[in-house]
Amino acid sequence: MFVLDIISAIFLMVGVFFGLSGAIGLFRFPDFFTRVHAASVTDSIAAIFIIGGLLLQTSFDLNTAKLLFILLFLMITSPTASHALAKSARHGGQLSLSESKTGQKESAQ
Amino acid sequence: MAELIDLVLLGMLAITAIGVIVLKDLFAVVMLFGIYSFLSALIFVSLDAVDVAFTEASVGAGISTVLMLGTLALTGRKEKENQHSSLLPLLVVLITGAALIYGTLDMPPFGAADNPVHEHVAPRYIEESPKEVGLPNMVTSVLASYRGFDTLGETVVVFAAAVGVLSLLGVVRREEDDAPESGLKEHRVLHVVAKLIIPMIILFALYVQFHGDFGPGGGFQAGVIAAAAFILYALVYGLPLAFRVVSPKFLQVMAAFGVLLYASVGLYSMSQGGQFLDYNKLAADPIAGQHYGIIIIELGVGITVFAVMLSIFYAFGSQAERSNIK
Questions:
Q1: Measured between CB atoms, which of B183, B193, B200 is closest to A80?
Q2: Same domain, yes or no, for B12 and B107?
Q3: Residue B197 to residue A84, Cβ atoms within 8 A
Q4: CB-based contacts of B223: which residues, under 8 Å, 6+ apart?
Q5: pLDDT digits over B137-193, tens only?
Q6: Which of residues 160-189 of B touch A (CB under 8 A)?
Q7: Residue B190 contacts A where some CB pair is shorter than 8 Å
C-alpha cells in the first residue's frame, strides 16, 4: 500500500500544479482565447490527475466506480464547456490577440 | 486540519459575498452566487451534512443560476445606479449585526456534547428511527416521516412559486413557423454531447430519487436534476422542440399532481384509522408502511419540484424569446 500512497501523492501534487498554473494563466494570459485555454487545462488534466490520485486512495470498491464515473463525466463535459465558451465568444465577435493586433495596424494605416 | 479547511472555505465565502456587493455587472454577480452556493455546499460536506450539501449544490448552484440567468436575459445585465444615501441602511445593518453577534455570545460552545440540539429530539431520532422507520439514511426518515408535515408545506411552497411565476409571466406558446431558431443550432459538438449526456442525467435523477432512502438524495434533488436535463435540452435544441417533448400544460398538471399525491397519502392513512401522514397504517407491518409512505411522498416531491422548475424556466425562456424578437 505504501507504493500506492506515494504514487497517489505524486498524482495529487501534479494535479495541484496544473490547477494552480491554470488559475495563474487565467489571470495572466493576454486575451480571451488563451485564458479559456488556461482554464480548460484546470478542468481537464488537473481533474484527471486529482481523481487519479484519489482513485489510488480508495480500497477498490464502490467508491472507485463512482470516482471513475465522475472522471468519465468530466472528460465529456469540461472540454465541451470550453469549446462552447470559445465558440460563443467567436460568435459574439471576440477576436484573438493576433487578429486584433493586425486589425489595429490596418486601422492605423 | 479540519479547522484550516473550514477557515479557508469561510474566508472564500466572505470574499465571494463582498464581490457580490461590489460588482455592478449582474452577469458576474449571478456567477458569484453559483460559486457561493458551491462553497456553502463544501462547508456542509465538512460538517457531515451531505444531504443538505447535495441540495445546496443542485438547487443553489445549479437551477437558481440558470433561472437567474433567464431573468437577466429579460432585464439586462447592468445594475441600476442607486441615488439614495446608504447611511441609514448601513446603520440598520450594523445594529442588527452587532445584536446578532452579541446573541452568539450566550450560545453554548460549538460542538459541545451538552448543547440543546444534541439533547432534545436528535438522540430520539438516532436511537428510535432504526426501529420505528428502519431506513439507513436517517435524514430521509426525519424529513419524510417525522417531519412529513413540514415537507408537505415545503412542497406546497414550491407549487405556490410556480403558480406565482406563471400568473405573472405565463408561457407563450408560439406557432412552429415564426419560432426563432436556437442560437446554438450550429453547435454540432453541443448537440452530440447533449444527446449523449441527457439520458445519463435522467438516469442519475432516478437513482437519486429512489436511492434517497439509503444515501444522500431524495425528491428535491432528484426533481431539480431531472429538470436540469430538460433545461439542457431546451437550451441546446430550442424551446419549441422542448415544448413538444414536455408540454407546459402537462407540467402544470404534474406540478399539482405531485402535491396531491403527497397529500393523498395523508388522507389514505386517515381513512385507515390513523392520523394525517401516519405511514404506520399504510400496510399491515408498520415498518413496511413507513417505507411505502416515504417512497410515495418522495415521488410526489420529486414530480412537483421537477414540474415547477421546468415550467418556471419555460416561462422565463419564452418571455426572453419574445423580447428578443421585438
A1: B193
A2: no
A3: no
A4: B205, B209, B301, B302, B303, B304, B305, B306, B307, B308, B309
A5: 888 888 888 888 999 999 999 999 999 999 988 766 655 545 555 555 667 888 899
A6: 183, 187, 189
A7: yes
Range of the domain at A29: 2-108
The answer for residues whose C-beta is within 8 angstroms of residue B19's C-beta and 6 or more apart is: B28, B29, B32
* Residue B125 domain flag: no
C-alpha cell, A108: 492605423
CA–CA gap between residue B297 and residue B260 (Å, rounded): 10
Of the candidates A90, A87, A85, A78, the residue with the CA atom closest to the CA atom of residue A41: A78
Using an 8 Å CB-CB cutoff, list chain B residues near A83. Answer: 189-190
Task: Examine residue B130 and state whether it is found in any structural domain, yes or no.
Answer: no
pTM of structure: 0.86
B51-90 per-position pLDDT tens digit: 999 999 999 898 999 999 888 888 877 777 777 788 898 9
Verify whether the Cβ–Cβ distance A87 to B200 is below 8 Å. no
Per the structure, how many domains does chain A have?
1
Cβ <8 Å between A84 and B190 = yes
> How many structural domains comprise chain B?
3
